[in-house]
């Protein structure tokens, strides 16, 4: 029978130390009055999924009593054909979050470290904590990753380097040449995880060349999701591309039947509708350009990026943007706030439909005018 650190026998089950270190990584919206009518807080696709995906999910729902066995053989070839990839290198999961958690379980443990960039995706430390490993943050250039800083932070305990590119919530991105330089500088046994949740929105990063980095190395994986540009956030479908051995290891840790039958069919139909994907990408780019300029005209610092959200810094008006968050919420508009640190004066705003953005912009202008 185990004793606690002071020698006493526990009177209840005690979680691993790492689990007790896990903290909420973002501030969640709570019910309030009036009910929210504009949802710009969760980086969802404002234009929704392909109508073919909706119909495919509906048609599959009459088989809800059946498990779908060997799901990789359903989804992996479809994903591979869509992206011109090797299906043997693909592992699927309940969103890319599930894949990231399983990668951590495969390659982290007590006495090891997950290295991330300071001010990057705030959930990434929790992947380490869950494995009794230590999260380490490499200093960044403001919100942007610095490859030299990452490489200087690697130790003999480093097992994973995690890089979201583009990053959430900072919206920053490093170039393909910098990613190559990062991989070249890592020890062969350190796994480089490239989180590509927002890759489909970018124009400055050649995805084919990024895939080539994965295929040319034994220690690089790329995680992807259908939650963003394909509009299937509620379906929970994600995947990774990497060396066959890593894909097989991740597959070993998946749930027995990880993805619902309706989600599988929705995902296959969504990938097939390239016209809808093109429409979402182009409309999002228009919204991003228009609202980056309009918000800057209000005196807001808009971090440049190529995703479906904007990071807004209100340091010209307040040190802590909580007051702006609450005033938006009082008008039925939800945006995302990250407590403390570098983001204390910031809000992250998902690019919504045109009417939603007009409502947000009008209300925000009134709020900022009251702060002057």
List descriptors.
three-stranded antiparallel beta sheet; alpha/beta; 372 residues; seven-stranded mixed beta sheet
Could you characterize what this model shows?
The protein is α/β, with parallel strands linked by helices and 372 residues long. Helices cover 39% and strands 14% of the residues. The strands form 3 sheets. A 7-stranded mixed sheet has the order 2-8-7-6-5-3-4, sandwiched between helices. A 3-stranded antiparallel sheet has the order 9-10-12, covered by helices on one side. A two-stranded parallel ribbon has the order 1-11. A hairpin with a 5-residue loop joins strand 9 and strand 10. Helix 2 runs antiparallel to helix 10, helix 3 runs parallel beside helix 10 and helix 6 packs parallel to helix 7. The termini are far apart. The mean pLDDT is 92.
């Amino acid at each position: 029978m185990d004793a606690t650190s002071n020698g006493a026998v526990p009177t209840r089950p005690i979680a691993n130390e790492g689990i007790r270190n896990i903290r909420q990584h973002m501030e969640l919206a709570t019910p309030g009055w009036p009910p929210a009518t504009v949802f710009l807080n969760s980086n969802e696709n404002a234009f929704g999924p392909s109508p073919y995906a909706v119909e495919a999910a509906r048609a599959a729902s009459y088989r809800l009593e059946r498990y779908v066995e060997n799901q990789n053989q359903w989804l992996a070839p479809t994903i591979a054909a869509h992206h011109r990839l090797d299906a043997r290198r693909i592992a699927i999961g309940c969103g890319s979050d599930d894949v990231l958690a399983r990668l951590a379980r495969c390659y982290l443990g007590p006495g090891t470290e997950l290295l991330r960039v300071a001010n990057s995706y705030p959930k990434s430390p929790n992947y380490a904590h869950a494995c009794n490993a230590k999260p380490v943050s490499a200093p960044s250039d403001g919100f942007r990753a610095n490859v030299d800083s990452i490489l200087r932070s690697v130790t003999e305990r480093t097992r994973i380097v995690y890089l979201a590119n583009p990053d959430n919530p900072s919206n920053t991105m490093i170039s393909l040449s910098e990613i190559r330089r990062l991989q070249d500088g890592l020890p062969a046994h350190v796994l480089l995880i490239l989180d590509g949740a927002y890759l489909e929105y970018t124009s400055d990063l050649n995805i084919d060349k990024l895939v080539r980095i994965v295929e040319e190395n034994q220690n690089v994986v790329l995680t992807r999701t259908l939650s963003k540009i394909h509009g299937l956030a509620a379906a929970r479908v994600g995947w990774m591309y990497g060396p066959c051995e890593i894909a097989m290891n991740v597959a070993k840790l998946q749930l027995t039947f990880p993805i619902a039958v309706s989600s599988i069919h929705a995902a296959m139909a969504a990938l097939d509708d390239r016209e809808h994907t093109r429409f979402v990408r182009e409309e999002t780019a228009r919204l991003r350009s228009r609202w980056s300029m309009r918000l800057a005209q209000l005196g807001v610092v808009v971090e440049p990026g190529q995703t479906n959200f904007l990071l807004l810094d209100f340091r010209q008006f307040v040190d802590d943007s909580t007051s702006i968050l609450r005033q938006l919420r009082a008008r039925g508009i939800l945006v995302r706030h990250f407590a403390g640190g570098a983001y204390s004066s910031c809000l992250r705003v998902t690019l919504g439909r045109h009417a939603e953005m007009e409502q947000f912009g009008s209300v925000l202008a009134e709020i900022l005018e009251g702060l002057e």
